[in-house]
Amino acid sequence: MINVSPIGRNCSQEERDDFEKYDKVHNVRPKMVSMLREKFAHLNLTFSIGGQISFDVFPHGWDKTYCLRYLDEFKEIHFFGDKTYKSPALMTQCSSADLSSCQSDRQTIVEIKFVFSTPP
Predict the structure, then answer these.
(1) Fewest C-beta atoms under 10 Å: which of 11, 27, 51, 52?
(2) By the 8 A CB rule, do 53 and 19 touch?
């Protein structure tokens, strides 16, 4: 998987927030994805816009649900992210997925500590 961030991964939180607003108006990421889909149509790639500042590029079928085929023995699976939701694709493969929406790195750490400190 390749993660592409037009503003750069090392931007500040303020820059992230500003870019998100700008992108909603000017469609920077959707325009980039559209051009890349056209240019690389022969490569069987999926382009997925997510979060505030980036989009992912990966082979078809290799999205976040790809790992689920190898996790049958687990009763719970946790996905973390700022734009996490129960998609139909995810729920058909794993109805026990727990989705935590986190708005910052610190909140993600708090959620992860909670998940791993809570007895089953």
Answers:
(1) 27
(2) yes
pLDDT tens-digit profile, the chain (120 residues): 889 999 998 999 999 999 999 999 999 999 999 999 999 999 999 999 988 999 999 998 887 677 777 777 777 766 666 666 555 555 545 555 555 566 677 877 887 788 778 676
User: Does the annotation flag 9 for ligand binding?
Assistant: yes
Q: Does 16 carry a binding-site annotation? A: yes
How many alpha carbons fall within 13 Å on the CB side of residue 48?
Answer: 18
Is 82 assigned to a binding site?
A: yes
Does the annotation place 54 within a ligand binding site? Answer: yes
Q: Enter the pTM of the model.
A: 0.62
